[in-house]
Amino acid sequence: MSVVPRLDTLLVFTADGCPHSAALLADLDRRGVRYRELNLSRSPGDMRRLRDVSWEHRLPVVVDHERVSIGFRGGSSTFAELGLE
């Protein structure tokens, strides 16, 4: 199922193999929250977009308009751990 981005949709930066990203997406799905996933493992070109909003080298990253959150429930994975650096 494709998620259609809207102005009120969260942007969620994730990567394959990141347990924190998987847990975040499962939580958002369970709660019925609309989001647009940008998976850096599958679309490395989105790294530039992530760097426009955050200097952190950790995932997941959630962008809610001007607010940026790093990690999920106190956990995050480094880019190095995920093979993104």
Structural descriptors:
single chain, 85 residues, alpha+beta, four-stranded mixed beta sheet, two-stranded antiparallel ribbon, 26% strand
Would you kindly provide a written description of the structure presented here, covering whatever features stand out?
It contains two helices and six strands. By secondary structure, it is an alpha+beta fold. The chain has a single domain (10-76), classed as Glutaredoxin, CATH 3.40.30. The strands form two sheets. A four-stranded mixed sheet has the order 2-1-4-5, with helices on both faces. Strands 3-6 form a two-stranded antiparallel ribbon. The protein is globular and about 30 Å long. The relative contact order is 0.25. Mean pLDDT is 91; it is low at 1-5.
Q: Would you summarize the structure shown here?
A:
This protein is α+β, with helices and mostly antiparallel strands and 85 residues long.
